[in-house]
Every structure is written in C-alpha cells, then in structure tokens.
Inverse folding.
C-alpha cells in the first residue's frame, strides 16, 4: 500500500506540471485585459504603463517559469515563515494579485475559514442527512418515505442554488426577518449570543448547499444499498437468525459504503473550490467569490493560483479515495 | 457666477450643520454596501470606482466638488483662481494654501511635503499610476513652506485643478508611502490596504474584495464629526441584493449604485425601510458612427481608417435620419427609469458647459427620417424592403458590449432602423474584450470594425476640455498607433481642431463655456457623428434613518460621509 501511494504521488508530479502549463496557457491566450474594467477616462498610455507595471510586458515562457518558481519555492517558504516565524522567503517576489497588489496567498488564507465554515459544514450536514435517507429509502423501497425522499432529492438536484438561495432570502430574510440576507465575514464568535448570530447567518447558505449535496449523495447511498440488499450474503445472515438491525446496519451498510465513501471523498475538493453561486447570493465572500471576482477583473495570477490549488486538491483526493477503497474492501489490493 | 456657485456650495454644506450639534461617534454604527467589493484603498493604483470611493472615506484631496459640480476648498483655505492671485496671470502656476492645524489620523501634521510627495508618487515613471492623466503637464510641485504648495505647469494650463482635486487624486502620507515609489508600489500591501488619511474615518481592518472595518478618525478636523463611531463597508454580491438589504430588510444604511429595472425597485420600495436618491453627472449612453469604411473586404490595416471614408455615413443626411428614428424618451424609461433622461448632448452637465438649446433630437420623427434618406438617394429600388443606392445595400453592423440594457437598446433601435429600410446586424462583445484595447483583437471599440457602436462615456471632474479634445483628427485610432486613440468615430474637422486649440488657451470660465458648448454642438446636432441617447444618472439607496446623504456625481459618492448622522 505504501509503495502504491508513493508511486501515485510521484506520477502526480508530472500530471500537475502539465495541468499548470495548460491552465497558464489557457488563461494567457484567452482574450481579455486586466485594464478593461477601468473607466474610459483613463488614457491608453496610462493603461499601457499600468500593464507594464504588472509585468505583462515579459514573454510568456518567462512569466510561466517565474510563476512556477513563485508557486513551488517562494510561496511554500512564506507559509513556513508564517508557521514557524522564520525568514526563509526573504524579499523574494511573491505571486501578486493584479487587483489588490498584494500576495495572492494571504488573501486565499483569509478566505479559507469562511468557505470551510459554510461550504464545509454544508457538506457535513448534507452527508449526515443523506446517509440515513439513503438507507431508509432503500430498505423500504417504494414506501411513502422513499417516494418523498426521491421527490425532495430530485428538487435539490434539479433546482439551481441561485434560485433556492433567492427564494430562501425572500422568505426568511425579507418577509419573516429571521436570518440576515448578508453574511458578516468579520463576525467573531465570542460568547453565546455571537454564536447564535453565527448560526443564524450560516443557516440559509448551509441549508441551500446541504440540500444540494444531500440529494446527490442520498441517491448514491440508496442505489448502493439496493444492490447489496439483494445479495446472497444478506439472505445467509438473515437465515443465521441475525437481528434485522445487525443485518442492515452492520453487514449491508458496511458493504454499501464502499462506493459512497469514494463519492464523498471525491466531493471534498469542491468544498475548497467554494460554492461560487451560493457564496455570491449570500455574500459569504469565500474562495468561490474570490475566484469569480478575479475572473471578472482578469486578475490572472489569482485565477491561476486558485485553479491550480483546486487541481492539486482534486488529484490528492482521487488518491485518498483510492486508498480508502482499499482499506474498506479487503479484496482490493494494489501491490 | 462662479462666486455664486461657491456660495451655494458653502450654503449646502452649512445646511448639513444639524449633525454638528452631536458629538463625535454619538450615533454608533453605520453599514454601507457596495455591490462591487473594493480591492485596494490606494486611488493611485486603481481607477475602479469602488476602490476610489471606498478610499475617499479615508484619504482626501485638496479640493472637492459638491453636488452641483462647484469646487469646494477641502484641505485648503480657498480655491485658487486668477482673481484671488492663486493662479498666476500666465496660467502656468497654481498656489494652494493648506488649512493650518490639519493632522493625519496617526496624529502627525499634514504638511505641504505630503502633497509634494503625492505628486512624486503618481508621476514616478515605473509606478503605473492610474491617475497619471490628472498630472498631465505638471512640471514641478514644490513646497516653499509647510502650508504652501506650488504646482508649476510646463505651459499655460487654463484648468489647473487636475492634480489634487476630486476623489481620484487624494493626498497620501509621505511617511507611510516613502518606500513605495515606482516599481515598489505593489510591495506596500499594508499602506495600500490601510492608508493613513485626513478623512472622517480610518481603516481598522481591510479584507480585499470583501469588507472594510472603519472607525471615526480621532484627529478629524471637526471635533464633532463624524457622528458615527464605526462603519462596516461590505462589498460583493449584486445590485439587487444591495438594494434589498437597504430597502427591504434594513440590514444596511447605504447601498451604492442600485441600478435595477424600475419595476423591481418599485416593489422593493414597498418595504418602507429606505429611499432612493439620484443625481445626474456627465455619463452619456451614445451611438458613435464610424466615419470610415469598416468593410471586411478591405485589406487589414486599411479597414476603419481614414483611407476609406464610410460609403453610407459620410452623408450627414443619413446620419441625421438615423438619429431621428430613435425615441430617446422610451429608451430612457425602459432602460434606466428614474436614473435616466433623454439627451441630445455629449456634454450634458455642468450647467455652465451644457448646450441647453440642443433638444431637437428628443421627439422621434420617423417620416422626417425617411424623407431625409429619400433625399440622400437611398431608396428601395428592388423592393426587398432594404434601401439601396448605386447597387449598394443599406446594411450596417451595430455593435456594443454585453450588458442587459444595451442588448435591449440594440433590439429596440434595430426595429426602428429596420422600419426606415435599413438592414441591421447586431453584435455584442464581452466588455473585457470590447473595452480591453488589445490591438490584436478585431472586437475592440477602438478598432471599430462595425458601422455604429454603442457605449457610455463621461469625463472626470467638471471641465470637459480633455473630453472634447478627444475628437481631434490626430486622435483617431489607426494601425500606426496600435489602434490607440480616443477619437473613436475618426471624426475630422479642421474647424473643430482649431476651436479645441482655442479652448486650450482660454482661461476665462465664461468663454470656456461658450467654446465647449459650440464644440458639443459640432459633434452632435451639427454633424450627428455622435448620437447621444440617454443621460445616465446615479441611483443609490439609503435607509430612512440615515441623514445627511447628498448624492454627488462630481466627486466620490461618499464625499460627505463625515457629515452623515442617524435620524432618531
């Protein structure tokens, strides 16, 4: 298993380098201009000077090499510096966002908590709802519970979050005034009251995203349970006189979890990717909102860095999913 | 007249005095929302309105403009003019007298050295300063004593107020930015995010593209202001959500640019928590006509250049007909509601420069337009519904940027023009490409590979000289200049150029107004090279409990945030 993991990690290096090149080229060759958002009152000569100040005058291969160096050498050093108070990074030029003229990594670090709180919690809540629903739906197939579960997950799956989000805002923020419509990212939990406020402001975005996640995962859970419930070993277990509870929750569930765990693991990178639309609707201003504003402003260093971090996470969690698979299912051995 | 406007401005500020009775910070907390989140608080590194306006809470210019467009001495004793001796007779120097006793929010003295440094910062050749145009023609900025600043221009400058006036050109602190000159500007993240200023508020925390936390500046020159102790400046989302948070849920006190469909706003106003404020500036949505031939049959490098005059639009009768077919009132109502009004002017304001008698284009005149086209020889000879002349069809390409209102306008105007017997092909280009200025792209507004195009433009401050000077012959975008240049229409009239040169030499304000009005008329009603459509105002929303809001399109919208107070 260890050699397998190491081998996969080594293969990941050229894969990621290739991905970084593709991302860099795609973004660079795409039409667009970081100065396009500027008012027309700014003369073209001034815009040209500003472009040069951003380093846009250099040829593409030099900018790519510089970015690689900054991403793989300078930024990790700064992360170490921040963690241990050392000074490895020194004065080296970091990856600078064109919009804010500040290091990209600092802004990302600032955004991660919001995204993890809201999107991550929604994922946890979604999984927590989805598993029981999936299990019961499969166990009592075609019962009223199954029908309602199917109906709700179809809604969660097919109605886009920008719609459910706005509907929730109009019902709970505008009409009932229970929850704030705008997320306060500066809020700090210091006591009971502020904790309640935090819960209130997270309620709507978490609900919207949890519904979406739950509907997806509950369908997988249900399908996987149904497959296993018809297996011979289930009949054997029942014939042995095991209690129904043990049959379903120990034997069937454990086996059904194998594909579901993979799906859940593969979904984790999307948490970091943020929920672009939901964050935008509720003004959570996490990583998703950061990415979309960077795209709008043609802030290439920010977009490159974010998309590449997502690529790393996806590659990494693919590996995690494969390893989990091997742990859950003793029949699968990679070595 | 000038004194009059100054007095009016002063009167307007005095009218806000009730808040002055209060003590600083007595009104607690105020929430402001901008649907675009500020990225940086240094107006010299960004020309985004969101950044400049957020920064205006903290850093201030020497001179501000009030809501009528009149200049207010902000950090100086008076506005220098030729009459009071502040501007030299030969129009080459301007001398500012700084108000004594001004302090930065860190407690240090505000001196003329800071002003000198600000100019040095922006004029540094490697800095990529976004406001460099404000410093055009500046030879030197010196500080003979701590309260005097002298700006010397290379030649006579009839409008010498470019540097250090308005939200775009605030004074930054020398001590804070001393190591940030030129190429080092982006390295000063702390200074760019939390500039030390003289304004009503100081930055406590800045989260780029998200939220700014501010508190009252303890050193603010008026001991009773600002009435609010703290401010949260939230960014992000969209205009609808911002308007909703003020008008319906009441979570926020002020929302910037709540430009939404009129019926949507009406519905939100029923929430009863806030009101809308609007004001008009100089932003005009217009159709620009290409005076050169954009035909794709021409070789690259000759398309849309002065080598080939436009085969259809070179005739003024045709251009006038195109304008006559448009119902501007309808467009304004559909697209902008309260925040728009029809206009025939390129320079719709301030009053001194606006050509008031130019209103002939407002009523739609379809029959008149058809008659003009007939007269110009464009008739439908082959009965296919499209006019033609000498074997050429009246078929045009009409381009604009991607934007919901613009696409509505395109569809409506296309219908009117088709009624005239003109074949219209619509094209919409993503804004970042259209305004991107990439000389390699065929879709930029400068390259103008279309017959007509629509966008909006305005000018900074109150003086239209540089705006009108964009339409001189030499400013036409062409391959030799990498397609840079502001004379988008490739309009070329020696009489116009001569008049622009005269404006550049005239210092008297009355006379300047007269020339500017004439230039405006030459571009619009006398030649119809530019078809102005809608004078677009600014529409913002504020809570009913927020007092002191004066919407200002000539300066930052938050220009008087230090005067805001809570209505109890």
């Amino acid at each position: 298993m260890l050699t397998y993991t190491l081998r996969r990690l080594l293969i990941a290096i050229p894969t990621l380098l290739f991905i970084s090149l593709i991302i860099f080229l795609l973004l660079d060759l795409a039409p667009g201009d970081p100065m396009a958002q500027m008012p027309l009152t700014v003369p073209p000569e001034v815009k040209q000077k500003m472009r040069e100040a951003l380093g846009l005058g250099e040829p593409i291969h030099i900018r790519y090499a510089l970015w690689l160096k900054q991403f793989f050498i300078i930024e990790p050093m700064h992360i170490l510096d921040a963690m241990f108070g050392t000074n490895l990074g020194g004065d080296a030029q970091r990856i600078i966002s064109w919009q804010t003229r500040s290091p990209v990594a600092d802004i990302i670090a600032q955004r991660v908590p919001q995204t993890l709180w809201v999107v991550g919690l929604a994922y946890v809540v979604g999984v927590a709802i989805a598993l029981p629903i999936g299990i019961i739906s499969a166990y009592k197939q075609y019962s009223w519970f199954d029908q309602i579960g199917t109906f709700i997950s179809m809604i969660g799956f097919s109605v886009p979050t920008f719609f459910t989000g706005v509907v929730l805002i109009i019902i709970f923020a505008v009409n009932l005034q229970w929850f704030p419509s705008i997320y306060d990212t500066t809020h700090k939990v210091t006591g009971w009251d502020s904790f309640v406020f935090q819960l209130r402001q997270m309620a709507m975005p978490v609900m919207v995203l949890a519904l979406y996640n739950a509907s997806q995962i509950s369908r997988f859970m249900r399908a996987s349970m149904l497959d296993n419930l018809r297996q011979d070993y289930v009949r054997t277990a029942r014939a042995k006189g095991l209690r129904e509870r043990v049959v379903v929750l120990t034997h069937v569930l454990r086996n059904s979890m194998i594909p579901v765990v993979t799906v859940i693991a593969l979904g984790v990178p999307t948490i970091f990717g943020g929920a672009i639309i939901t964050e935008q609707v509720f003004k959570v201003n996490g990583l998703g909102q950061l990415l979309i504003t960077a795209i709008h402003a043609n802030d290439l260093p920010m977009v490159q860095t974010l998309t590449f971090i997502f690529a790393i996470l996806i590659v990494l969690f693919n590996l995690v999913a494969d390893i989990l698979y091997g742990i859950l299912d003793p029949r699968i051995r990679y070595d | 007249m000038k004194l009059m406007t100054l007095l009016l401005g002063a009167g307007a500020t005095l009218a806000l005095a009730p808040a002055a009775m209060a003590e600083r910070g007595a009104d607690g907390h105020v929430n402001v929302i901008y649907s675009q989140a500020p990225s940086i608080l240094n107006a010299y590194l960004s020309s985004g309105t969101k950044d400049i306006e957020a920064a205006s809470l903290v850093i201030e210019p020497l001179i501000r403009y009030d809501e009528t467009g009149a200049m207010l001495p902000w950090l100086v004793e008076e506005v220098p003019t030729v009459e009071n001796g502040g501007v030299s007779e030969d129009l080459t120097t301007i001398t500012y007298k700084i108000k004594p006793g001004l302090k930065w929010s860190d407690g240090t003295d505000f001196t003329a050295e800071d002003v000198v440094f600000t100019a040095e910062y922006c004029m540094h050749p490697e800095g990529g300063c976004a406001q460099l145009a404000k410093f055009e023609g500046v030879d030197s900025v010196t500080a003979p004593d701590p309260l005097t600043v002298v700006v010397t221009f290379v030649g006579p400058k009839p409008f010498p107020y470019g540097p250090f006036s308005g939200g775009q050109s605030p004074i930054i602190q020398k001590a804070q930015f001393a190591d940030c000159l030129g190429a080092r500007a982006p390295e000063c993240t702390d200074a760019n995010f939390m500039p030390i200023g003289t304004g009503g508020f100081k930055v406590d925390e800045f989260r780029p593209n998200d939220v700014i936390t501010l508190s009252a500046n303890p050193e603010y020159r008026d001991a009773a202001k600002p009435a609010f102790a703290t401010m949260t400046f939230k960014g992000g989302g969209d205009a609808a959500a911002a308007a909703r948070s003020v008008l319906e849920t009441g979570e926020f006190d002020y929302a910037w640019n709540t430009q939404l469909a009129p019926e949507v706003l009406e519905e939100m106003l029923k929430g009863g928590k806030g009101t809308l404020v609007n004001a008009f500036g100089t932003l005009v949505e217009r159709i620009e006509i290409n005076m050169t031939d954009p035909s794709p049959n021409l070789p690259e490098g000759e398309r849309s250049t002065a080598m080939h005059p436009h085969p259809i639009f070179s005739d003024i009768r045709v251009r006038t007909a195109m304008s006559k077919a448009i119902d501007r009132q309808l467009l304004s109502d559909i697209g902008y509601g309260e925040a728009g009004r029809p206009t025939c002017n390129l320079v719709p304001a301030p009053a001194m420069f606006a050509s008031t008698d130019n209103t002939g284009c407002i009523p739609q005149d379809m029959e008149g337009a058809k008659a003009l086209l007939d007269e110009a020889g464009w008739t439908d000879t082959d009965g296919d519904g499209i006019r033609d002349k000498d074997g050429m069809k009246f078929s045009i390409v009409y381009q604009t940027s991607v934007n919901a209102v613009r696409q509505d306008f395109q569809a409506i105007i296309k219908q009117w023009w088709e009624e005239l017997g003109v074949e219209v092909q619509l094209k919409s280009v993503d804004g970042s490409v259209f305004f991107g200025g990439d000389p390699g792209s065929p879709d930029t507004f400068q390259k103008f590979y279309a017959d007509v195009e629509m966008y909006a433009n305005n000018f900074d401050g109150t003086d239209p000289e540089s705006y009108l000077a964009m339409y001189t012959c030499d400013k036409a975008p062409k391959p030799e200049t990498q397609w840079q240049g502001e004379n988008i229409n490739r309009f070329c009239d020696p009489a116009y150029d001569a008049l622009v040169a005269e404006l550049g030499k005239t210092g008297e304000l009355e006379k300047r107004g007269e020339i500017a009005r004439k230039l405006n008329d030459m571009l619009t009603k006398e030649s119809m090279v530019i078809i102005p459509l809608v004078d677009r105002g600014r529409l913002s929303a504020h809570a009913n409990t927020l007092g002191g809001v004066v919407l200002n399109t000539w300066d930052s919208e938050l220009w008087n945030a230090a005067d805001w107070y809570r209505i109890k």
Chain A has a mean pLDDT of 86. Chain A touches chain B through 54 residues (CB under 8 Å). The two ends of chain A are 6 Å apart (CA to CA).
